[in-house]
Design goal:
254 residues; single chain; five-stranded antiparallel beta sheet; alpha+beta
Length: 254
C-alpha cells in the first residue's frame, strides 16, 4: 500500500509541473522545437545580438496572436503567414524592438520575404527596418537610424548546420559521395586517355627517328659499294651476261 505522504508528494510534483508551463497571467508559455542542451533556452534566442544579456527579457513566441500581443497591431505583420512550426523571438535594444521570425523551410522564408517587400513597395516603411538573413525574416520596430539598424542586423547569428543521423544519403560503402565518385572516375578516364595518347605519340616519334637513322645508314653503306648489286653485295651467277668479266691475271695459282 502506498503511504499517504508519498501520494501527496506525487500530486505535488504534478502540480509543480503544470505550474511550470504556465505564466503568471495564466497563458501557456510557448515551447520551441529546438532547445539548447547546455543553456536550456530556445536556440533562436541564442542567435540574438548579445543574447546572454537578453535571455531573461527576450520573448519567445510561436503563435500569430502572440505577435499582436507583444508588438501591438502593426500592418506589416499581416504580410507574415505564421504557419505551424514558425517561431519568433522579440527583444528590446537601444536601437529599437527587434523581431526575428524563423520559418521551417527556405521556401517559406522566401515567400514571406516577397510579401513583405511587396507591402513595402506599396507603402514605404515608417519607423521600422527589415532584412532577410538566411531563413530569418528580421524586423526592427520603433527605429529611426538606418545605420544603427544595419549594425544590429549584422550581429544576428544564423548558424544552422545540417547533420545526417547515420549514413548520409548518396554515399557509397566507403563513405564517398556520388559526386566525388563521378569526379574521380572522370579524372581517371581523362588521365588514362592522356597517358595512352602520350604513349602512342612517343611510339610514333621513336619509330620515325629509328626509321630515318636506319635509312641514312643504308644510304651511306650503299654509297660506299663499288657497284650495284640487287643481291646486296652477295656473290651471284652471271647467267644474264650483264656482269663484266673480271681479270684473272693477278689471281694466285694462275
Amino acid at each position: 500500500m502506498i503511504p499517504f505522504s508519498s501520494t501527496i508528494k506525487f500530486f505535488g510534483v504534478i502540480l509543480v509541473a503544470v505550474l511550470a508551463v504556465t505564466d503568471v497571467a495564466g497563458q501557456t508559455i510557448s515551447r520551441s522545437q529546438e532547445i539548447s542542451e547546455k543553456e536550456g533556452v530556445p536556440v533562436l534566442i541564442k542567435h540574438l545580438p548579445d543574447w546572454e544579456k537578453k535571455r531573461e527579457s527576450a520573448i519567445f513566441v510561436n503563435k500569430p496572436e502572440e505577435l499582436s500581443t507583444y508588438l501591438d497591431e502593426r500592418s506589416i505583420l499581416t504580410a507574415i503567414d505564421f504557419i505551424p512550426g514558425t517561431e519568433a523571438v522579440i527583444a528590446s535594444y537601444p536601437e529599437g524592438k527587434l523581431l526575428i521570425i524563423e520559418f521551417t523551410t527556405p521556401q517559406a522564408s522566401a515567400d514571406a520575404d516577397q510579401r513583405v517587400l511587396a507591402a513595402l513597395q506599396s507603402q514605404p516603411a515608417q519607423g521600422f527596418f527589415y532584412r532577410r538573413i538566411g531563413n530569418y525574416n528580421v524586423f526592427l520596430f520603433d527605429a529611426n537610424d538606418e545605420n544603427a539598424a544595419n549594425a544590429l542586423f549584422e550581429k544576428i547569428k544564423y548558424e544552422k548546420v545540417v547533420q545526417w543521423l547515420g549514413a548520409e544519403p548518396g554515399l557509397f560503402a566507403n563513405g564517398e559521395s556520388e559526386r566525388d565518385f563521378i569526379v574521380g572516375t572522370s579524372s581517371l578516364f581523362i588521365s588514362t586517355v592522356i597517358v595512352i595518347g602520350v604513349g602512342f605519340g612517343a611510339a610514333v616519334v621513336i619509330g620515325v627517328i629509328t626509321g630515318l637513322l636506319f635509312f641514312f645508314y643504308r644510304e651511306q653503306r650503299r654509297a660506299t659499294t663499288p657497284s650495284f648489286s640487287d643481291a646486296g653485295g652477295m656473290t651471284r651467277l652471271n647467267l644474264d651476261g650483264l656482269t663484266p668479266a673480271e681479270s684473272t691475271g693477278k689471281l694466285i695459282g694462275k
